[in-house]
């Protein structure tokens, strides 16, 4: 069962609360996912403890397979949670209410689609959107694979390692996916 972290804004109009509760209900009732956060604060049952707010959310994101972010209203906290999730290689679904006459940030729209989806929703199609997303989207998983390399490849990897902005593993994954997998016509037509 996949674990889901839900990123919600802490400030929103009272009229928006029912949509947030609909998302929570879907995730709690869905048999394919487990919601790994406490949302009692949404109903006013208890205040969140500011002392461990950051630590608990970071730990929950790290323990999740997916992150669902409600982005209808600006929230620096939700923005941080999305960014942190992406650095931890989590798949992120960003949802925003269809009745808002706002445009989604260009930054969010420019994120790679294989890691992030940005979808407009309403109360009638929300369950269908979430059901489809969790049925077709697979969590990001890394698999260890070792192989013996030639001297030429060793020299190339040594050259790649000179740029420390990413690990050699990250660079190789990117190159294999973008330069080989994504361009291999036989594989794409399998």
Report what the structure shows.
The protein has 190 residues and is α/β, with parallel strands linked by helices. It folds into two domains: 135 residues, Rossmann fold (3-Layer(aba) Sandwich), CATH 3.40.50; 38 residues. A five-stranded parallel sheet has the order 2-1-3-4-5, with helices on both faces. Helix 3 links the parallel strand 3 and strand 4.
Keywords:
190 residues; alpha/beta; Rossmann fold; 5-stranded parallel sheet; 5 strands; 42% helix
Layout of helices and strands, plus pairs?
Layout: E1 2-7, H1 17-29, E2 33-35, H2 53-63, E3 66-70, H3 76-87, E4 91-97, H4 106-109, E5 116-121, H5 126-136, H6 151-161, H7 168-181, H8 185-188
Parallel strand pairs: 1-2, 1-3, 3-4, 4-5
Poorly predicted runs of 5 or more residues = none
Strand content: 5-15%
> Could you spell the SSE succession in H and E letters?
EHEHEHEHEHHHH
- CATH class categorisation of the largest domain: Alpha Beta
The number of domains is: 2
Query: What is the fold-level CATH name, i.e. the topology of the largest domain?
Result: Rossmann fold
Q: Given the structure, what is the number of helices?
A: 8
Please sum up the structure shown.
With 190 residues, the protein is α/β, with parallel strands linked by helices. Helix content is 42%, strand content 14%. It has helices spanning 17-29, 53-63, 76-87, 106-109, 126-136, 151-161, 168-181, 185-188, and strands at residues 2-7, 33-35, 66-70, 91-97, 116-121.
